[in-house]
Write a structure and sequence with these properties.
- The chain has one domain: TIM Barrel.
- The longest helix is centred in the last third of the chain and has 13 residues.
- By secondary structure, the chain is an alpha/beta fold.
- It is globular, with a radius of gyration of 20 Å.
- It contains 11 helices and 12 strands.
- Bound molecules: iron/sulfur cluster.
Length: 310
């Protein structure tokens, strides 16, 4: 029972309305397999890169603000699920002071939980403070609102957000079954008002670890003006073993996708190294041999081609 208490099982009304679809159910329903798990509480070691409560500074030019631990989704594979019960809070004043002092920071990713769990007044307060800092060039909001509570995005929210452009939306979506009429309506509210959307997908065993499913997802997203950005390996957080897909399998999927879908539909395959090692991006290896300027490559059909470099 300890893990159920630690990582509670919660479903909102929207997810309940689409949970009859198996790929959705498998992402959100508690499984007893979580008990036998060996993962860790903080797989990205965010705590040791957090100089201020709720601010993570891992790369020189950007920071992440975890402004809430509340989320619309409560995915069983969440890498921040330890925050669900053990969140230390977000210190806006000191986060702003920290960013003001560190002039190399050019980008802020507002994350959570889900930032849209906060009300519009609170979101505007944060955006106003961040956009007043001269060296901040743009802001990203990482959210699952489109696939977990799309009705939260309405014209009042959009009218506030659009005052703080350039503002990018990084939308978490894992399966084509998450694309509903409500999802599309909320997407249009962002894109028609000049806020571009990038997608972030977690590669999940028995949910989307299949090139056909991902092709369908990525091509549909592009048709809705969403750029597939990352396909993430599932982090080694506690309770996640059952969802993880091997790097070998992930690269096979990427290889099948590459050449079979347009480059605009291809995301980067990335995963986070443990102990705060940061993000790593992997591509299937195409170089068979390399000697001086002479390369031998294997193309997407596994045919070999020589190439003379400059
Ligand atoms: S949407 Fe993101 S933050 Fe929310 S539970 Fe899922 S993985 Fe965690």
């Amino acid at each position: 029972m300890r893990k159920i208490k630690q990582h509670p099982f919660l479903l909102n009304s929207y997810i309940t309305s689409i949970i009859h679809k198996k790929p959705i159910k498998n992402q959100f329903i508690f499984s007893f397999l979580e008990y036998s798990d060996k993962g860790v509480n903080d797989p990205l070691d965010e705590k040791s890169h957090s100089p201020v409560r709720g601010l993570v500074h891992r790369y020189p030019d950007r920071v992440v603000l975890t402004i809430t631990n509340k989320c619309f989704a409560y995915c069983r594979f969440c890498f921040r699920k330890d925050n669900w019960n053990n969140f230390e809070g977000f210190d806006l004043e000191n986060a702003i002071k920290y960013i003001e002092k560190n002039k190399k920071i050019e980008e802020v990713l507002i994350s959570g939980g889900d930032p849209f769990f906060l009300n519009n007044t609170k979101i505007e307060q944060i955006l106003k403070r961040l956009t007043a800092i001269k060296h901040i060039k743009f802001i990203r909001i990482g959210t699952r609102v489109l696939s977990a509570m799309p009705s939260r995005i309405n014209i009042q929210t959009i009218n506030i957000l659009k005052k703080y452009k350039p503002l990018w939306i990084a939308a978490h979506i894992n399966h084509p079954d998450e694309i509903t009429g409500e999802f599309i309506k909320a997407v249009h509210l962002f894109t028609d008002n000049g806020m571009p959307i990038l997608s972030q997908t977690v590669l999940l065993k028995n949910i989307n670890d299949d090139a056909k499913i991902l092709k369908n997802l990525f091509c549909t997203l592009v048709s809705l003006n969403i750029k597939p950005y990352y396909l993430f390996g599932c982090d080694q957080a506690i309770g996640n073993s059952n969802f993880r897909v091997s790097i070998k399998r992930a690269l096979e999927i990427m290889k099948t996708l590459r050449g079979n879908i347009s480059g605009i539909c291809m995301p980067n395959f990335a995963f986070d190294l443990p102990n705060g090692g940061g993000k790593i991006i992997l591509e299937p290896d195409r170089i068979l041999k390399h000697e001086d300027k002479h390369y031998l490559f294997k193309n997407f059909e596994n045919k070999e081609f020589g190439y003379e470099d400059i």
